[in-house]
């Protein structure tokens, strides 16, 4: 009897924990609004007009949601002439499969929290002004098939070579500032 009660109690606690730590589309919305707040210039008003809490996140410019979970699975802000930094909150978009921020003026450091995007397959950060080296935590993005960071991040060559050996990935670039990674 006592055992059964303990079991019951544990089950309730686990359920409670699950409910309290569960994320939903609101999580995605908050992460995206955080990104918007870091944009200092949006001359063509791409985000200012569309990224509003009054509109469902899945209808915002540059956003695609998955049909199954109704969570953001693609963020594409490429060539929108945006200036800003990338907030760590972007790592909360855990359903993200594709992230394209290419050809803008994102600057500053790439937050380590991007490593939380375990479903990420496509990442394009090319033609921005991000600084720093390709971080070692890139290796934790196991689903990543395409990584395009041309002229945006200085590559830590040793890291790449190490990673290449480990994962048999292909880096056709001879230059330090160019990197294209493709899973074979
Ligand atoms: C998302 O979850 C939070 C609690 O974690 C809840 O308050 C909120 O109503 C949920 N939003 C939706 C759209 O389900
Ligand atoms: C993102 O997740 C972290 C850790 O769970 C949390 O502290 C932060 O408030 C979240 N950011 C947003 C914008 O919701
Ligand atoms: C952005 O939108 C808000 C309200 O929609 C407006 O007050 C503000 O002037 C706009 N900013 C720019 C830069 O257009
Ligand atoms: C993002 O949008 C641009 C312009 O519409 C398009 O050329 C590009 O292929 C898109 N990126 C992805 C990853 O779909």
From TrEMBL:
InterPro entries linked: DNA_repair-toleration (IPR053211), Leu-rich_rpt (IPR001611), LRR_dom_sf (IPR032675), LRR_N_plant-typ (IPR013210)
Keywords: Leucine-rich repeat, Repeat, Signal
Pfam families xrefs: LRR_1 (PF00560), LRRNT_2 (PF08263)
First and last residue of the signal peptide: 1-21
Sequence ranges assigned to domain Leucine-rich repeat-containing N-terminal plant-type in this UniProt record: 27-65
GO biological process, one term: defense response to fungus
Listed PANTHER family: DNA DAMAGE-REPAIR/TOLERATION PROTEIN DRT100 (PTHR48060), L DOMAIN-LIKE PROTEIN (PTHR48060:SF21)
Protein name listed in UniProt: Leucine-rich repeat-containing N-terminal plant-type domain-containing protein
